[in-house]
């Protein structure tokens, strides 16, 4: 081990990550769509008084989707710098990264359905 933890370096890293989160939601339309969906899910969770286990599953799903969206955005931005003009290989990379977000979003919708559909059916 090299020595004690460098607190200033750690704080700086958190600040950079915070800027990344801010930029993600400020400039990326799909991230804002996921944010709106998250707000809707939280309101529904409070309304239906879901359990701690259900909250945990939803928080994991939300975190996974947002993380995938951030990685997808990073891949797309890097690909645009590496190859500003159209390139079929870059298209495959960007489409595959977007597919990862879609796969996670679909799984999140399924988890949400498993949690909320029975509660909604009982309510209505």
UniProtKB/TrEMBL annotation:
Membrane-protein topology? Multi-pass membrane protein
Q: Give the annotated active site.
A: 69 (proton acceptor)
Organism expressing this protein natively: Dyadobacter sediminis
Record GO biological process: phospholipid biosynthetic process
Q: Where in the cell?
A: Cell membrane
Which InterPro entries does the record associate with it? DAGK, DAGK_sf, UDPK
List, separated by semicolons, the cofactors it needs: Mg(2+)
UniProt binding sites for a divalent metal cation: 28, 76
What the entry lists under PANTHER family is as follows:
DIACYLGLYCEROL KINASE
Provide the cofactor note recorded for this chain's UniProt entry: Mn(2+), Zn(2+), Cd(2+) and Co(2+) support activity to lesser extents.
Spell out the protein name for this chain: Diacylglycerol kinase family protein
Q: What is its main location?
A: membrane
Its transmembrane ranges are 33-50, 96-117
Q: Name one GO cellular component term.
A: plasma membrane
Q: Tell me if Glycosyltransferase is a UniProt keyword of this record.
A: no
Which Gene Ontology molecular-function terms are recorded? ATP binding; kinase activity; metal ion binding
Family membership = Belongs to the bacterial diacylglycerol kinase family.
Keyword field: ATP-binding, Cell membrane, Kinase, Lipid biosynthesis, Lipid metabolism, Magnesium, Membrane, Metal-binding, Nucleotide-binding, Phospholipid biosynthesis, Phospholipid metabolism, Transferase, Transmembrane, Transmembrane helix
């Amino acid at each position: 081990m090299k020595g004690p933890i460098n607190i200033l370096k750690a704080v700086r890293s958190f600040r950079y990550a915070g800027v990344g989160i801010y930029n993600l939601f400020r400039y990326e339309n799909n991230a804002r769509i996921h944010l709106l969906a998250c707000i809707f899910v939280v309101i529904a969770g409070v309304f239906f008084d879901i359990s701690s286990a259900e909250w945990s599953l939803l928080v994991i799903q939300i975190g996974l989707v947002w993380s995938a969206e951030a990685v997808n955005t990073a891949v797309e931005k890097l690909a645009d710098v590496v190859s500003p003009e159209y390139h079929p290989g870059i298209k495959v990379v960007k489409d595959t990264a977007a597919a990862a977000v879609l796969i996670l979003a679909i799984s999140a919708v399924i988890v949400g359905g498993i949690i909320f559909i029975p509660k909604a059916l009982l309510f209505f």
